[in-house]
Amino acid sequence: QVQLKESGPGLVQPSQTLSLTCTVSGFSLTSNSVHWVRQPPGKGLEWVGAIWSGGSTDYNSALKSRLSISRDTSKSQVFLKMNSLQTEDTAIYFCTRNNYYFDYWGQGVMVTVSS
Amino acid sequence: DIQMTQSPASLSASLEEIVTITCQASQDIGNWLAWYQQKPGKSPQLLIHSATSLADGIPSRFSGSRSGTQYSLKISRLQVEDTGIYYCLQRYSNPPTFGGGTKLELK
Fold first, then answer.
1. pLDDT at res. A7
2. Could you report the per-residue pLDDT of B81-100, keeping only the tens digit for each?
3. Which residue of chain B is at minimal alpha-carbon distance from A39?
4. Where do the DSSP E strands lie in B10-75?
5. Cβ contacts of B49 on chain A, cutoff 8 Å
6. Do A79 and A93 meet the contact criterion of CB atoms below 8 Å apart?
7. Per-residue confidence (pLDDT) for residue A92, from 0 to 100
């Protein structure tokens, strides 16, 4: 069955770089795109970016200068890297499969930006 | 970017009541709209896609409709397990954009 699971550090210091991994199973990264969505505590959902089945990427324009999404298809993993983290980046980060719509989601990983 | 204006922001309703949540798109998005339910501490769950199509395993008391650029999610007979936060999402164009959410509670 389709599964996605995020992993990464729960605490990142301000100005440092966040690195998250989304490990997927039950589908191929060359067949479906994977998107990242984040949710600050008590707030709504914000699209972060995507890596498409062909390997191209799209980013939230507000985050584009700090964000990089890549993948390793042999390991069924998608990577998110965001630099120059600020407290406003504190959020739950979800990865989700795109099948015209976001149909399967990971459980999310809470990332806190704090010294 | 396409803006999705969702209303109401919060809603309190009784068991078996009919509940309606709406999303207004800032431009034409056709039927490229989905609805999600999110419970505390969980990831969003797809309820409706393509504006009116029920996702797999979702009870038939949930339904979606469209009138122009206004989209509605209706719960025909509210149940205890329907509490949570509901979001709309447009997939007509990039970037994907979500509505602000509607918090649904039981009265």
1. 98
2. 999 999 999 999 999 999 99
3. B43
4. 10-13, 19-25, 33-38, 45-49, 53-54, 62-67, 70-75
5. 100-101, 103
6. no
7. 98
Contact B5, B90 (CB under 8 A): no
What order of strands is seen across the sheet that includes strand B19-25?
B4-7, B19-25, B70-75, B62-67
Q: Do A101 and B34 touch (CB under 8 A)?
A: yes
Other C-beta atoms closer than 10 Å to the C-beta of B27 total 10
For A95, B7, B105, the CA distances from A38, given in Å and listed in that order, are 9, 21, 24
- Token pair for B81: 């397990």
Residue that has been written with the tokens 């999110």 in this structure: B38
| A35-66 burial code (b ≥16 CB/10 A, e <16) | bbbbbeeeeebbbbbbbbeeeeebbbeebeeb
pLDDT digits (tens, 9 = 90+) for B25-63: 999 999 999 999 999 999 999 999 999 999 999 999 999
Strand A109-113 relative to strand A11-12, pairing: parallel
* Of A97, A77, A54, residue with least CA distance to A7: A77
The amino acid sitting at A89 is: D
Among chain A residues, the shortest Cα distance to B95 is held by: A60
A57 touches chain B (CB under 8 A): no
Q: What is the DSSP letter of B92?
A: S
